[in-house]
Amino acid sequence: MAGRLEGKICLITGAAGRIGRALVDGFVEAGATVIAADLVKLEHEGVDAVVCDQGDVESIAKLEEYIKAKYGRVDCLVNNGALGGNRCNVHEKPLQEYEDVMRVNVRGPLLLTQSVLRLHLAEPTRPLSIINMASIAGRRAVSLGSVYSMSKHALLGLTKSVAREYADKNVRCNAISPGVMEVPNMQGFDEESLSKLMSTVPVGRGGKPLEVAHLAVFLASDEASFITGSDYLIDGGSSA
Ligand SMILES: NC(=O)c1ccc[n+]([C@@H]2O[C@H](COP(=O)([O-])OP(=O)(O)OC[C@H]3O[C@@H](n4cnc5c(N)ncnc54)[C@H](O)[C@@H]3O)[C@@H](O)[C@H]2O)c1
């Protein structure tokens, strides 16, 4: 991947999370200048780690000011930060979960997208790539995960809208939809239910965060110049 993103300023959200850290590693390896945003500060040599609340208008305005002053632009935004929500049936979902998950998973990416578009449209000469981390749950229902699933369906709506509206402004917008991942601390799963889940994946294992990062690096790069409005499943054949 070395050199693919040389000279590109890339803003990655949820950077301190399980997939976020792999995204940061992948983008750094590809030569990008990485601004790593999260609620908690990521400790990672060679990246610009910033703390922000992606659901908060003021926090994103501050981030935009900071980026404008220091870099002047963003070449790639990876909307990766998200909340998972609890596992329970629709009729039992606390409304608070809806408020919290939609705030982070939908309002957050919308605010960040608006922010990088503002920076970009001031001088739309360089390509801008926006990558939204969706989920297999944005394509179909996952048991007991209705609110999370709703949020990822909405994120795919944003992806397609941005792709269509800004295609003539040097902007590409795509989504990545991971399936079952091999990551620690899977909320609501014990060891038995987790191994049952893994056994449903045709390749026989969950995806690795770095495999997601490799796809994101490609979508961020100019090699993907004709790709916009697409949603890439990365699920080991689960949807086949
Ligand atoms: N892990 C999986 O199995 C899986 C599967 C499909 C899709 N995804 C998607 O991949 C992405 C990353 O998943 P992950 O497993 O690394 O999640 P994670 O929970 O490990 O990381 C999410 C990060 O988002 C940050 N975050 C939460 N609220 C925030 C806020 N208000 N402002 C700023 N940052 C905030 C958290 O601090 C955390 O570091 C998410 O969009 C998730 O929906 C994950």
Automatic annotation (TrEMBL):
It comes from Saitozyma podzolica. Pfam families: adh_short_C2. InterPro entries: NAD(P)-bd_dom_sf (IPR036291), Sc_DH/Rdtase_CS (IPR020904), SDR_fam (IPR002347). SUPFAM superfamilies: NAD(P)-binding Rossmann-fold domains. PROSITE patterns: ADH_SHORT. This is Uncharacterized protein. Belongs to the short-chain dehydrogenases/reductases (SDR) family. The keyword Ribosomal protein does not apply. Keywords: NADP, Oxidoreductase. GO terms for molecular function: oxidoreductase activity.
